[in-house]
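Review this today:
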Amino acid sequence: MRVITAQEIDAVMAPRDLAETMRRAFRTGCIAPQPHHETIERPDGEATASLVIMPSWNDFKAQGSTDKGFIGTKISSVIPENRRKNLPTVMGVYLLQSGKTGEALAVLDGRALTLWRAAATSALASSYLSREDSKRLLMIGAGGLAPLLIAAHCAMRPIEEVLIWNRTTATAASLAKRVKLSGVNIHATDNLQGAVHGADIISCATLSTSPLVLGEWLSEGCHLDLVGANLPHMRECDDRAVQDCRLFVDSYADAFTRAGDIIKPLENNLIARSDVAADLSELCRGTKAGRRFYAQKTLFKSVGTALEDLAAASHVFMRT
């Protein structure tokens, strides 16, 4: 059994290549039971942590064979208190097994795999939902996922300028100095409203529990990519943004049970489930339309699926 480190994962990843692997995976699908979530109570004064187990496997019955494909399981923890220790809030491992024999083939660094698959999924969605001539990207959040999201969006669209906003401006400025992309001007901003209004693509990767992006700030034709805030009590945008945009998700089941940005407007009867136009499988298979016209505002809510993990893990395994 191989152990594949974060450094080895980073070495073989290219955003566009991984997005194409994701596209094929969403077209073919896989078997992915609902993730298993456990709450881990912490001592008084510490935020509640959680344990998440996400299994999946290729649809061997539909394939008619077990000669190709894998079984995979991600085990990850979300510990908000890690931020005080300058540690990642999400850590874990991914176990990849042979679909034919069940043999353990590899254990992969779960955090690196999750970051890459999240970025690639957003890039894949953007290929259907953002305008092809998008030139200005706003990155909200400056954590571990932010540089990969920037690279992924820039790989899919002709981005010329990237603004980075974070609650701590110095953190945004530090990230802006670290990220280097040819032909792209990258800098930090402390004017969130102005940055949102001027952006063609807005990508959010935060653990916010209150809206950061207001619908009244959005310009015509923009694409809003919501990657963080993947629990029911979390929000990255307000209700108006959800109401004003054509809505898309990576998975209906996960979005309706885990995504606060979708759940809250549903609970308040501001939108209906039918207002979610398509999931990524339908977009990739061409059974549902993405962006319909140039001035349309689009919103993609990603919560992360086991299919994405399996696709990313097999992508890495075949290249290391």
Notes: The mean pLDDT is 95. The chain has two domains: 2-113+308-317, 122-305. Residues 2-113+308-317 form a domain with the ornithine cyclodeaminase, domain 1 fold (CATH 3.30.1780.10). The first helix runs from residue 6 to 12.
